[in-house]
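dude i think i finally got it to work??
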Amino acid sequence: MRTITLLLLACLLCACVSTRVRLADQVSPTAQLGRLGAVVLMEPDVELYTLLPSGLTEARADWTAAARQHIGTELRRRVENSGARLLRLPDLDDPQAVMARRQIELLYQALASSILSAEVAPDRLPTKRDRFDWTLGPGVTALQAPESARYALFLFVRDSYASSGRKALMVLGPLLGIGASGGTQIGVASLVDLRDGKVVWFNLLVAQRGDLRQADAAAEAVTALLQGLPL
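look at this
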């Protein structure tokens, strides 16, 4: 995701908070997909980092745990309040089944990267320039979701916070001819049809404000990420 992140910083950070909602080509903007079946909430993929003076990042497990809890709680609340039935994936004992599920999660990360690339640099994927037609493929059945589930909701969030040294560089850098930016929040949310793996809704969030370590800020981020979700 690092290359995509650089593209996003160059193309989307004209405002403090930016979202970009897309629907699959055959889906009406007024569709109420959530009323057609239950939704499986995938475990949110969340990681928080310290942004070092060098520009490198350092993962913070304690920050990540707090943000994951806040985001997960708000996500469940929002989906349930929409009237959709919220289901969870069953626990798996078979190591091969666990691996197959993990492969689908990694495949989603790769697919999300491709969608981002097509959105911010359409010339890289010209066949997707004027259409939104993406799928995880029939292998999505490896998730072994409940038979009553119609959709799966995926969430991917990365955020970073400037260290004290980075903040000092942001202040003093211009005097030395050095440009330095602060942390950036990037989120991707997708609704996937479990019958064929098609991505029916997608939203990209890029923000330069909001502390996901705090419940209120995490709730605001979830609200932005679920913008346009057809539930």
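Residues 3-7 have pLDDT under 50 and may be disordered.
im so relieved honestly
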